[in-house]
């Protein structure tokens, strides 16, 4: 109960944070090629990238925490060969314009 | 149950259901027998069947909610949040109705009155699609009563009797419905008349649904239709459907009255009965003109002048119709201004319940006070239970305690439903320790606790961290003949998890399954969270697999804790899987699921660095 109240409070206090997550944004050309659309929210983009990883079986078989990028993925994820799943949200955040706090 | 009399009165209805398990013919006999037995009770049934033709399922359900062994139906499924919800039986039953569909129910009918039970067979045979609606509504309720679970749904019981067809069946049963159903007699004639008009074949017999004669609320059109009917057959007898149909298309109360006059002019055989006036009364109550009760007063006056002084059923119809049109204030005004209208306890409690739900507390009190001075109707135990329930819902515990004092002062003995409500409020307010005090008080006063009391108690104690004490109550429960159910165990398990004794909780889960109590998703959620908190991730993952196999949903706190624990154990891939599962199973919205994941990952990165 208390937890839920706290969660609600937090959600109410950070409308900007939620907005930056779900508002549609114009995306740079590299990402546009990857997604095939010019506008997407950060959340939508994350889900698309993650489902792409799953579809193409890009997770390292020995270490599920690591993704071996193919060329397409490399183009949007700073050209890295291997990406840790931990940094995936951060890397995607970089593609989106920074909202002033 | 509110009173023994009512309880006893409901027994025949159970008998019907038992009979309905048999073959179709047998069950029909049961229904018809019941109808026959009550055919002479009063004439209300007919008019009400007309009014309620559209809501057989609602009516059926309301009846289901009455039989004591089906009472569980109305209870919401036990959840962490809901497991302690229980009201007085009346309130609970109304809640079940409102949860279903107040709009469709729109019932001006006093459903709990034994007198109306005989309506159910009528209504059921009245509507062609009742089997579907009834059975679908039954499944809406979530559970089927054990009786029905063992047998297929008693569709045979719900089917319209074959007597509505022109060929008379050999069994004597359907004939008994004739006195009740002039509409059945009407069939052949009606068909003839339509053939004469050359309208063509009517595939469905008209009387199986409330016939709609009118399509425009204009009086002149309606009169034309009536004239054409009277020109074709002078033996037309279904005036109530005619009148109801005119009301349903949105005619004004004055126009419907004129139509009634016109009907009695055209058909000398038609003599308006009480139910005729009830149709008009209900219609005037259903008008959306808030604050203006003069049309209702007019129709009441018309009743008295026509030799049918309004009785308690009229009052009940009016009050319920007003409430279903959200005119609770008008209903209160109607009762206050006309002391001659004596509401019976059902009507009174219904209105108080509605007022308590929709208006401020002071409105309710002033209504009760004014009605006491005007008509000397005193609130009874159920009234107090309703008020205390609504007060507790708004977390006003001080008022509830005060009311308890008032209750004792006025010489009413509180029962366990009342105490359950107060106990629930203590749990809501995180003053769970108080439940023990309340329980002892109940014992002192000699009130026998029921299963809900024990469940609330165990929940409260678990919440307050007194799990050991809560466990003791399992034995106390068993001694008084109540077996701990899933709600009891879930409370205990979440209490133990909160204390950090998750492995003990896991043992309890095993014990619970041994006793044949199947854990639900709330049990698993509580346990998973507890296991994550103490860091036994292996068992947590095992449990998670069970949950995914069963397609159970994850609750937000459980999800967040689980993800965090997975990240801490460097199982990021698994955390992503859980994220996917949470989205697939629609446990959480995408953004909530993502935010929890992002947070955990951020925290994990901070730990690494």
From TrEMBL, chain A:
Taxonomic superkingdom: Eukaryota
Every DM2 domain range: 20-98
Name of one Pfam family that matches: SWIB
The protein, known as: DM2 domain-containing protein
Source species: Platanthera guangdongensis
TrEMBL record, chain B:
Stretch list, region Disordered: 1-43, 159-202
Alphabetized PROSITE patterns for the sequence: PPR
Biased composition regions of type Basic and acidic residues, renumbered to the chain: 33-43
Coiled coil: none
TM region positions: none
Domain of life of the organism encoding this protein: Eukaryota
InterPro entries: PPR_rpt (IPR002885), TPR-like_helical_dom_sf (IPR011990)
Gene3D superfamilies, sorted: Tetratricopeptide repeat domain
Segments of skewed composition (Basic residues): 183-194
Renumbered ranges of PPR repeats: 380-414, 415-449, 450-484, 485-519, 520-554
UniProtKB keywords: Repeat
Compositional bias (Pro residues): 159-172
Family: Belongs to the PPR family. P subfamily.
NCBIfam families xrefs: PPR (TIGR00756)
Descriptive protein name: Pentatricopeptide repeat-containing protein
Organism: Platanthera guangdongensis
């Amino acid at each position: 109960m208390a937890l839920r109240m706290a969660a609600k409070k937090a959600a109410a206090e950070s409308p900007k944070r939620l907005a930056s997550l779900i508002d549609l944004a114009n995306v740079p050309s590299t990402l546009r090629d990857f997604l095939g659309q010019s506008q997407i929210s950060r959340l939508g983009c994350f889900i698309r990238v993650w489902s792409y990883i799953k579809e193409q079986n890009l997770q390292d078989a020995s270490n599920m925490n690591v993704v071996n990028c193919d060329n397409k993925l490399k183009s949007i994820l700073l050209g890295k060969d291997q990406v840790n799943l931990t940094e995936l949200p951060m890397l995607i955040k970089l593609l989106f314009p920074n909202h002033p706090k | 149950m509110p009173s023994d009399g009512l309880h006893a009165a409901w027994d025949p209805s159970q008998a019907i259901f038992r009979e309905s398990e048999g073959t179709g013919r047998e069950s029909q006999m049961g229904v018809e027998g019941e109808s026959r037995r009550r055919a002479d009770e009063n004439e209300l049934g007919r008019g009400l069947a007309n009014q309620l033709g559209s809501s057989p399922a609602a009516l059926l359900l309301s009846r289901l909610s009455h039989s004591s062994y089906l009472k569980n139906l109305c209870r919401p499924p036990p959840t962490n949040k809901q497991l302690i919800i229980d009201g007085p039986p009346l309130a609970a039953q109304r809640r079940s109705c409102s949860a279903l569909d107040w709009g469709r129910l729109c019932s001006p009918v006093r459903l709990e009155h034994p007198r109306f039970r005989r309506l159910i067979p009528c209504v059921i045979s009245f509507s062609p699609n009742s089997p579907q609606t009834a059975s679908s509504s039954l499944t809406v309720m979530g559970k089927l009563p054990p009786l029905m679970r063992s047998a297929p749904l008693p569709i045979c019981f719900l089917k319209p009797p074959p007597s509505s067809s022109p060929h008379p069946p050999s069994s004597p049963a359907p004939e008994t419905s004739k006195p009740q159903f002039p509409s059945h007699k009407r069939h052949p004639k009606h068909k003839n008349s339509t053939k004469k008009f050359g309208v063509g074949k009517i595939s469905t017999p008209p009387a199986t649904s409330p016939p709609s004669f009118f399509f425009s609320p204009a009086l002149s059109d309606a009169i034309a239709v009536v004239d054409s009917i009277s020109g074709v057959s002078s033996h037309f007898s279904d005036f109530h459907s005619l009148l109801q149909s005119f009301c349903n298309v949105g005619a004004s109360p004055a126009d419907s009255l004129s139509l009634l006059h016109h009907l009695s002019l055209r058909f000398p055989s038609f003599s308006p009965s009480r139910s005729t006036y009830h149709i008009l009364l209900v219609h005037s109550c259903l008008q959306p003109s808030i604050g203006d009760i003069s049309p209702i007063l007019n129709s009441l006056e018309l009743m008295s002048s026509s030799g049918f002084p309004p009785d308690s059923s009229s009052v009940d119809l009016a009050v319920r119709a007003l409430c279903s049109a959200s005119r609770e204030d008008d209903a209160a005004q109607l009762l206050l201004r006309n002391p001659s209208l004596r509401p019976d306890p059902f009507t009174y409690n219904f209105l108080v319940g509605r007022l308590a739900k929709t208006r401020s507390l002071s409105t309710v009190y002033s209504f009760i006070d004014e009605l006491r001075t005007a008509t000397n109707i005193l609130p009874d135990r159920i009234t107090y239970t309703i008020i205390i329930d609504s007060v507790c819902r708004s977390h006003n515990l001080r008022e509830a305690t005060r009311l308890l004092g008032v209750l004792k002062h006025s010489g009413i003995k509180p029962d366990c439903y009342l105490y359950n409500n107060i106990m629930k409020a203590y749990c809501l307010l995180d003053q769970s320790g108080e439940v023990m005090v309340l329980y002892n008080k109940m014992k002192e006063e000699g009130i026998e606790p029921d299963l809900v009391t024990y469940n609330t108690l165990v929940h409260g104690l678990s919440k307050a961290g007194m799990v050991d004490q809560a466990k003791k109550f399992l034995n106390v429960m068993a001694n008084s003949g109540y077996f701990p159910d899933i709600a009891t165990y879930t409370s205990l398990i979440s209490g133990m998890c909160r204390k950090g004794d998750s492995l003990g909780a896991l043992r309890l889960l095993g014990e619970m399954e041994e006793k044949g109590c199947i854990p639900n998703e709330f049990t698993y959620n509580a346990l998973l969270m507890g296991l994550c908190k103490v860091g036994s991730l292996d068992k947590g993952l095992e449990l998670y697999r069970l949950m995914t196999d069963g397609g159970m949903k994850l609750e937000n706190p459980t999800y967040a804790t689980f993800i965090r624990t997975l990240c801490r154990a460097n199982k990021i891939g698994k955390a992503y899987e859980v994220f996917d599962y949470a989205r697939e199973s629609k446990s959480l919205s995408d953004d909530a699921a993502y935010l929890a994941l992002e947070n955990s990952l951020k925290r994990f990165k901070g730990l690494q660095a």
